[in-house]
Amino acid sequence: MFSRVNSSCCFYCLNNMQLLSTPPVLEKAWKHRRLQSELKSLQKEPPEGVWATPLDKKAHFFQAVIIGPKGTPYEGGRFFLYLQVPQSYPLRPPHIQFITKILHPNVSRHGDIGLDSIHHNWSLALTLSKILLSIQSLLTDPYLKVSMEPDIAKLYSEDRNLFNQMAREWTWKYAMTEIPQVYFGHVDLERGFSPLTVRSA
Questions:
Q1: How many angstroms separate the CA atoms of 198 and 181, rounded?
Q2: Into how many domains does the chain fold?
Q3: Residue ranges of the UBC core domain (predicted)?
């Protein structure tokens, strides 16, 4: 738990998460039934590489985990997210925020996610599962037309190799318990070299 706190994007934002609250929902409300149905689906048939666990009995607050997709600099990482379902759900989108630090054009330094479907094009057809899958997909294909961190988007566009090196190092540092035993270029990481010091041959 301590290491997870140390790997968080912003201590101030992390502290504020516990201050958020949601008014009680009536047990028989259709919104509540919809949420319970989604929860059962998440538990019985979770999407590959995605998990979500409620933190309260009413399932208003979730801790989610997204596994970094293969073939990306996030591969092997376990990225924790905080998810809060508003009383108006599914008429309004949930609030979702990365807890684990991640270097990505569409994720701010505070963990906020620039995903169009949860900010501008919310639809009743979307579910918690689909949203988490969209975020996972964003790790594979960043959307650069609108970015949360312009400098990172610029780096991604102009020097993909350096971006991948930096994003991979962040993944190893914040989203993994130990550095994998692999070679990066011609340098063995087990000998203590930082991937940022490695240049392609």
A1: 16
A2: 1
A3: 30-176
Q: Which residues contact 30 (CB under 8 A, 6 or more apart)?
A: none
Percent of the chain topping pLDDT 90: 55
- For 47-78, what is the HEC assignment? CCCEEEEECCCCCCEEEEEEECCCCCCCCCCE
Please, which residues have CB within 8 angstroms of residue 16's CB and are 6 or more apart in sequence? none
Both tokens assigned to 132: 């988490």
Coil vs helix vs strand at 129:
helix
Three-class SS state of 187? strand
| Residue type (1 letter), 39 | L
Mean pLDDT of the chain: 81
What are the backbone angles phi and psi of residue 63, rounded to the nearest 5°?
-110, 125
Give 74-120 pLDDT, tens digit per residue: 999 999 999 999 988 889 999 999 999 999 999 999 999 999 888 88
Mean pLDDT on 123-127 = 92
* Helix, strand, coil percent values for the chain (each to nearest 5): 35, 15, 45
pTM: 0.76
SS3 113: strand
| CATH code, domain carrying 160 | 3.10.110.10
- Give the structural domain span for 90: 2-197
59, two tokens = 């399932």
**CB contact burial 128-156 (16+ within 10 A = b; e otherwise):** bbebbbebbebbeebeeeebbbeebbebb
